[in-house]
Each structure stands twice: as C-alpha cells, then as structure tokens.
Specification:
Number of strands: 15
CATH architecture of the largest domain: 3-Layer(aba) Sandwich
Structural class: alpha/beta
Strand content: 15-25%
Distance between the termini: 19 Å
CATH topology of the largest domain: Peroxisomal Thiolase, Chain A, domain 1
CATH superfamily of the largest domain: Stage V sporulation protein AD
Order of helices and strands: EEEHEHEHEHEHEEEHEHEHEHEHE
Helix content: 25-40%
Number of domains: 2
Length: 334
C-alpha cells in the first residue's frame, strides 16, 4: 500500500469486494435499474411504524443479504463502517446494533458509500483486518422530514430539487483473489464555492466531484479514458451538466466516460423526480445493484466511483451558511 500524496492511496495487494447487496423502495424499483436490485419493497414503511425505523429496516435487510450472499457469519467480519443522513446516523446504529461486529459510524452525507469503502479498503489493504462490512441508506420520507418539510405539510418542490432515494447498499471488502478489486482510492477535500440554495444540491457538489477526480487523475498520471466509466453520485441532471462544464474548464476530456447515479436511477420522463435522485442510498444502490454485478460479468473493467456529499444541516442553513461539499473516489478493477 503506497500513499502518493494528495489523498491518494494505491494498493499493491488489492482488496477484493467479496459480496454486495442493494434493497430499494417501490419508486426505485419502477426505474430503469429496477431489475438490478436484490429486493424491492412495495411498503414505504418496510413494515415499521415510522419513516426512520423504515430506513433502518431497509439498511438491515441489505446488510443481511450481503452477508448471506457471501456466506459470511458475524465472526467473519472484523469491522463494520456505516452512516446515513439522519441526525446521529440513527439508521445505521439501529440497523447494526443486533450484530456482534465492532462498529464505526461515519458521516459523509451522500458520499458515505464511497467514504466507507475508502476506509474499509485502507484498513484491509494495510493488513489491519480481513473483512469489513461497508453500508449506508436513505429514505425519501425521513429525509424530507429532516431537511425540508414533512410530507404532511404538502410543500411545493422546486424544479431543481432532487428526489431522495429510498434505498440501501452493503458490501464486504477484504482479502481475496476474486474481482472486483479496489485498485486505488482518493480521499476528498472540502470544497465550498458559496452555493446557498438547498434546493440545488447538484450545483453545490459538482465542484467537489471535479476536484477529487482531477487530483486522482493527476496523481496517478491518467487520462479520463483510462476508465470505462467515471461515476458520480448523486449530482443529478443539473449537477451532471455542470460537472461536464467544469471538466472542460479544467482541460479534462471526460468524453462519454461519465455518468451520475442521481441521473441514472429514475426515468426523468415518466417518474417526475425533477432533477433526479439523491441521498446516501442512491449511489449505494446503483453501485451494489448495477455496477459491481456488471464488473463481475466482465462488462465493465475499470470504474472510478466517486460519490458526492453536501456537508450541510438545517441548522447551518437557517444561520445563512453556504453548502460545503465533498467527494471520495474509489478506483475499481475487474
């Protein structure tokens, strides 16, 4: 394992992603990638009494599926790394409290899937653990309640708003000889260009995504064409367009190698999600439900997965603060 500076680590012994699973809600199951997910839950409450408990149950199911698919028992997992959007990361804490696995709670907003995978890869790549469980989740109703207005208020969504994905993703990374592998990671740094519109998350996060990808490519001496796919999550339709403009200004030819989880997960013509998807579960479910299976099949060889997060809170927004953002990148190989 070599640290090359600028937040980038390259692995000599590449950690393997051994198992993965994604569980989503009804709307996500009706989208373009609905058939890719391990399970689609028709009940928005997931059999629970509150939205928050529903989100926690969603995450618990994806974690259990990831363990079962890899034939892992709790004793086989050295650490779990998880987080979510809710205050004090309660979805993760409550979902994993029944497991006899040491737990790290992290917060990277919608970048949490990439953040947990970066940390899990560094820990296992450095020889401190054999298997680490990485996971995250989000829920449309719990996110609306915390960050905007409860659904019962009937608030009007702005045209540039994104739809928080009801979904979760979980994977096990560690020592192994089967692809997909984590070849390198680049830790994001906080980027804040002064965006204050909480309805336009894509504009706030796009600069952080471009900054991380640029540093990653420069540090490793690569062109964007090195990858079959460079994937952000979840800038949405507006943020994706802005990211392309920013890449052009930086002199980076992103070509047709780029897509965004928030722009992918819903059908903009039929599902009325405005600027696309968002939430921790957006990038997590696309990664675990679509990207990793495609890599296992050999349809994708090299993917740069760079989930993005807006490090804001309602309190900071009410105090007039701008929206600092971050993006962590994981270079995957098959």
């Amino acid at each position: 394992m070599r640290f090359l500076g600028k937040g980038t680590v390259v692995f000599d012994e590449k950690p393997s992603i051994k198992s993965f699973a994604a569980v989503v809600g009804k709307k996500e199951g009706e989208g373009p990638y609905g058939k890719c997910f391990d399970a689609v839950e028709e009940d928005a409450y997931f059999g629970q009494k509150t939205w928050e408990k529903a989100e926690s149950e969603n995450l618990r199911r994806s974690v259990q599926l990831a363990l079962e698919k890899g034939s892992f028992e709790e004793k086989d997992i050295d650490f779990s790394i998880s987080g979510d959007l809710l205050n004090q990361c309660i979805s993760s804490g409550y979902a994993l409290r029944g497991l006899d696995i040491p737990f790290f709670g992290v917060y990277g907003a919608c970048s949490t899937m990439a953040e947990s995978l970066v940390l899990g890869s560094v820990i296992t790549g450095g020889g401190a653990a054999k298997n680490i469980l990485c996971s995250t989740s989000s829920h449309f109703c719990s996110a609306e309640k915390q960050f905007r207005t409860p659904l019962e208020y009937g608030g009007q969504r702005t045209p540039n708003a994104q739809w928080t994905v009801t979904g979760s993703g979980a994977l096990v990374v560690g020592e192994g000889s089967a692809p997909p592998y984590v070849e390198a990671v680049t830790c994001g740094r906080i980027v804040d260009l002064g965006v204050t519109d909480i309805g336009n998350m894509g504009a706030a996060m796009a600069p952080a995504f471009v900054d991380t990808v640029k540093r990653h490519l420069e540090t490793l001496g690569r062109e964007a064409q090195y990858y079959d796919l460079i994937l952000s999550g979840d800038l949405g339709i507006i943020g994706k367009s802005l990211a392309k403009e920013l890449f052009a200004k930086e002199g980076i030819d992103i070509g047709d190698k780029y897509d965004d989880c928030g722009a992918m997960i819903f059908d903009k013509e039929t599902q009325d999600t405005h600027a696309g998807g968002s939430g921790c579960g957006c990038a997590a479910s696309i990664l675990c439900g679509h990207i990793l299976p495609e890599m296992k099949k050999g349809n994708l060889r090299r993917v740069l997965f760079a989930a993005t997060g807006a490090l804001m809170s309602p309190t900071a927004t009410f105090q007039g603060e701008s929206i600092p953002s971050i993006s962590h990148a994981v270079s995957l190989e098959a």
